[in-house]
Amino acid sequence: MTTDTAPAAARSAPRAATGWRLVFDLFKLRIGIAIGATALAGLAIAPGGIDAWRAIGVVLAVTLASAAAGAFNQYVERDIDRSMRRTRNRAFVTGRLVAGPVWPLTIGAVACAGVGLAWLAANPLSALYTALGAFTYGVVYTVWLKRRTAWNIVIGGLAGSFAVLAGAAAVDPGLPDPTTLAFAVVLFLWTPPHFWSLAIAYRDDYAAARVPMLPVVVGDAAAARAVFSGAAMLVAASLVPVFLGMSWLYATAAVAGGVLMLVRAGQLALEPTRPRALASFHASLVQLSLLIVAASVEPLLRA
Questions:
Q1: Burial class (CB in 10 A: 0-12, 13-18, 19+), 297
Q2: DSSP characters for 238-265?
Q3: Residue 211: what are its φ and ψ, rounded to 5°?
Q4: For position 36, what pLDDT does the model report?
Q5: For 53-57, 113-117, 296-300, which range has the lowest pLDDT when averaged over its residues?
Q6: Same structural domain for residues 135 and 184?
Q7: Domains held by the chain: number
Q8: Which of 15, 74, 228, 280 is the most exposed place for a label (fewest CB within 10 A)?
Q9: Phi-psi region at 95: left, alpha or beta (left = phi > 0; alpha = psi -120 to 50)
């Protein structure tokens, strides 16, 4: 309870802003929105189409499910987060939110809302893919793999692939077509070089928390070489949809983003330092953004 004499309206605005920021950070909505955009790309590249409201429903559904997985990640990892400089200000660590049984129930409700919305807006298969994406990140990666193996993020990369499949299944609930599968593979291959770059930059944090991220297990130099190898596989995979009929715009985005990522990953392999790792991390974000935007406007070019 505040004791200052400022008007109530003036005091409520900062509290509201803080509350919204708390929700945004807890549910990792920056990542959730990116995963929702990935589902939109899946919608766009799948043969056929659906009406705008159903498409919005599917994208929102995938975003909600991803947000629930992100919040569950923070709830489960609050002990790890306390040991890491990058995460020690998260709400469950600082006490702004108090861990308790209400949180798994709330997070589960958000996840169920996302899966249910995918079912209503699209079909059961889209809902299944939406659920599998959240389960992969929230349970397979966070609970089962992260503290046990350096391969944690490799398998965790399936979460992005399921978002692509959820979007595509909303258009066609049959077997995914080759272009959709190729783009799902791109999302799977994107995650390791992206996250290993970040892990190199914050290796000391992960070591302090005893999390076996690749740089902690094999060292920065070997991890940097793995980033470059992963980037090379990713860039090659990102070009496959071009040969399956994707437009010149997608081809341009794949080449431009791929060159940037290879350059930054190559620099990191030659000089495995924190600045190079962060540059590689940011290049991977640019590369994926270019691919998603290009894939999402594909229907406009078809028309």
A1: middle
A2: HHHHHHTT--HHHHHHHHHHHHHHHHHH
A3: -100, 125
A4: 96
A5: 296-300
A6: no
A7: 2
A8: 15
A9: left
The whole-angstrom distance between residue 160's C-alpha and the CA centroid of its chain comes to: 6
Task: Specify if 8 maps to a domain.
Answer: no
Cα→Cα distances 176→113, 166, 182, 183, 248, Å: 25, 10, 10, 11, 22
Return the percentage of the chain with pLDDT > 70, whole number.
94
Q: How far apart are CA 181 and CA 192, in angstroms?
A: 18
CA 112 distance to own-chain centroid: 19
What are the pLDDT digits (tens) for 178-216? 999 999 999 999 999 999 999 999 999 999 999 999 999
* pLDDT tens digits, 145-177: 999 999 999 998 899 999 999 999 999 999 999
User: Residue 199 is encoded by which pair of tokens?
Assistant: 């892990």
Task: Determine contact, residues 267/280, Cβ cutoff 8 Å.
Answer: yes
Residue 165, domain member (yes or no): no
Q: Amino acid identity, residue 177?
A: D
Same domain for 37 and 115, yes or no, is yes
Let me know how long the chain is: 303
Beta-carbon contacts of 90 under 8 Å, excluding residues fewer than 6 positions away, are 25, 26, 74, 78, 81
One-letter amino acid of 273: T
Q: Answer yes or no: do 123 and 183 share one domain.
A: no
Tokens 């940097």 sit at which residue? 224
How far apart are the C-alpha atoms of 44 and 38, rounded to whole Å? 10
Of 12-16, 22-26, 167-171, 289-293, least confident by mean pLDDT is 12-16
Domain enclosing residue 276, as ranges: 177-303
Q: Are 44 and 299 in contact (CB under 8 A)?
A: yes
